[in-house]
Amino acid sequence: MGIHTATVKPWSLQEACNAFAAKNVPAITLWRDAVEPVGLEAARKMVDDAGLRVTSLCRGGFFPAADISGQQKAIDENKQIVDEAAALRAPAVVLVCGALPTLSLEESRKQIQDGIAAVLPHAQAAGVKLSIEPLHPIYAADRSAVNTMAQARRMCEQLNDTGKNDVGIALDVYHVWFDDALESEIMQSGEKGWLHAFHICDWKAQQSDPLQDRGLMGEGVIDIKRIRNWMDAANYQGDIEVEVFSTRHWARDQHEYLEDILLAYDNCM
Ligand code: ZN
Q1: Using CB atoms within 10 A of its CB, is residue 163 exposed (0-12), middle (13-18) or buried (19+)?
Q2: CATH, domain range 2-268
């Protein structure tokens, strides 16, 4: 079990580490904006001192660009994010792959695949895996042109050498819960060892904002238990990470909210 720093965004990294440790939360998913104010070395020490495991660093990606120099800039930045992950002892970087409204989805996808391929040797040398997070199609215009598990799996097929899992998938229930191929895709990726991460939250039927009005588990329509059973059947061994972007919950006392997160987690398992 792990919790994303973005889930408790009002807290500093130190506050999050202290609170997670006090509640025996075993793992933390680091967002770069939580690490940035303290720096890599201090961040790693905070996490270590709290006895927390780091699941991954969020996030890299955003590969598509209007021209070659923009594409190269994205590749360079992603290499730097890989270095940050290595310094934080994060085993993986989660990729929100990007999309440009001015490019076709096919062109964005091509640039994403080329970008990951260009970063991959650097990531392999650093011992950091790259985890493609398919995003709900509502974000296809400007946040990610990878919108289904099948698209992510096909990229893994193209990018990994035979038998390798250096490029895999971060499955977020918010983005894929409606996919009628979800069970089969989980099984296929699980067989290859490509299920890198499992993010949970909930999809509220009525949402006031497409980015920051996610539900806590149980507040929406997603059958998380069912998806969790599929992940188990696919031999997913990693942490189940609570990732909720919610201005509604961020406005609350975060200690009370953490109690609710832990209760909601237990209820959906
Ligand atoms: Zn996610």
Answers
A1: exposed
A2: 3.20.20.150
